[in-house]
Amino acid sequence: MRRIVIIGNGIAGITAARHLRKWGDDAITVISGETSSFFSRTALMYVYMGQLRFRDIQPYPDSFWTQNRIDRVQAWVNRVNVHEHELWLDNGQVVAYDLLILATGSRSVKLNVPGAELEGVQGLYFKQDLERMEARTQDTSHAVVIGGGLIGVELAEMLHSRDIQVTYLIRESRFWKQVLSAGEAGMVEKHMRGKGIAVHFDTEVKAFHGREGVLREVETSRGEKIACGFAGVAIGVEPNVNWLHGSGIEVDKGILINERFETNLPGIYAIGDCVQHRYPPAGRSSVEQVWYTGREMGKTLARILNEKEEKYAPGPWFNSAKFFGLEFQTYGAIPETSTNDVHLFEWVNASSECSLRIAYASSGQKVMGIQSIGMRLRMDVCLRWIETGASLGQAVSEWKDASFDPEFSKDHTMAWMAQLQSQTGLQVTPQQKNWKRIMNAIRR
């Protein structure tokens, strides 16, 4: 019986533990200093907003771990002794392993400006961050959020839910510039301003100022001084790997792994946000810090360790999010603009807060990517089109398979199809929804 120890109880580590138990009889131990049990990190915001209790985002009861013979240790790992196959914990305990899985996740990137260490200046990643934010914003009337990405807009929504005035500072000229088009970003900006969020573009933090160690104001690159009691820093996350320097485990931006999640040392593997692929899968980045990929990595590693799978082959990229209730979905590769090889169709209805972008090959019109805001699309259908090389015409004709907007919501299909026909000359008659096709996509 192998002794498998997993450091980290996030989605990657716990998925690995669950599937290792499914496929084998190994002794499994999960170590985390953050919490004793797995919780849904993406749902932390809803705990702060009062929509859920913390126990509501813990999907497994204590009995689950006992029944599945998964041991849990709540402690931080101070050192990995790779020569003796031991972990030294901050509680004085030493844990031996035969196989080690590193699933230590990410950590918030800090701003390198004066005052960044003040109480009230923080990111949001760990449960402890939520607890600090909860304590700090009890009597706060004005907060500043820094960073134009998903965590930034989540922080703004969280604070807004408690009637805290929010000033949102974004370094770039528009929101989430590396992902959204100008039309999409403009629509999201309008939506946020409509909620009362004061959005400032082309603005950076010059310094945080405080009194007696507590934040009192934010000074910007434009010379403004904004009085506030809380500053949420959301300028990105980075692999949580600094603690491994000097351990013998090779680290660059993240823990370097091959297509089997193997590090440079035998018997040591890494999965999730903390990894960096030496040979990224086709169409994917070397570092991918997304819930979906963490889950897939955990499942795949368990299969590899039980000889059920050869290597990690994740397929097309996908992600989803919400911007103050606006649903966002992206599948495959979406370039910023059309190129000689890839054409890009874009439809934006700002008044209805709805948009669609479809990337397709200029030769053969193979669908390469789909991105939407304000539309609810079936993930499996969209991914099947991309994986099977479906043509633009096929995807458009089968569009009702992908669409499952809530009942009584406005259907924009004819509007964007009319624009597509006008721009491309494509003549397609939409088919009726076909549940057989849908179920085949789900089972793919």
Q: How are the SSEs placed, and which strands pair?
A:
Layout: E1 3-7, H1 11-23, E2 27-32, H2 44-48, H3 62-67, E3 70-74, E4 77-81, E5 86-89, E6 94-96, E7 99-102, E8 106-108, E9 121-122, H4 127-136, E10 142-146, H5 150-160, E11 165-169, H6 182-194, E12 198-200, E13 205-211, E14 214-220, E15 225-227, E16 230-233, E17 237-239, E18 255-257, E19 268-270, E20 275-277, H7 291-305, E21 318-323, E22 326-332, E23 342-349, E24 354-361, E25 367-373, H8 379-388, H9 392-397, H10 399-402, H11 413-424, H12 435-442
Parallel strand pairs: 1-2, 1-7, 2-3, 7-19, 9-16, 10-11, 10-16, 11-12, 18-20
Antiparallel strand pairs: 4-5, 5-6, 8-17, 13-14, 14-15, 21-22, 22-25, 23-24, 24-25
Helix pairs in contact: 1-7, 8-12
Written description of the protein model:
The chain is built from 12 helices and 25 strands. With 444 residues, it is α/β, with parallel strands linked by helices. The chain has a 5-stranded parallel β-sheet with strand order 3-2-1-7-19. Strands 9-16-10-11-12 form a 5-stranded parallel β-sheet. It has a 5-stranded antiparallel β-sheet with strand order 21-22-25-24-23. Strand 23 and strand 24 (354-361) form a beta hairpin. Helix 1 runs parallel beside helix 7 and helix 8 packs across helix 12 (435-442). It is globular. The mean pLDDT is 95.
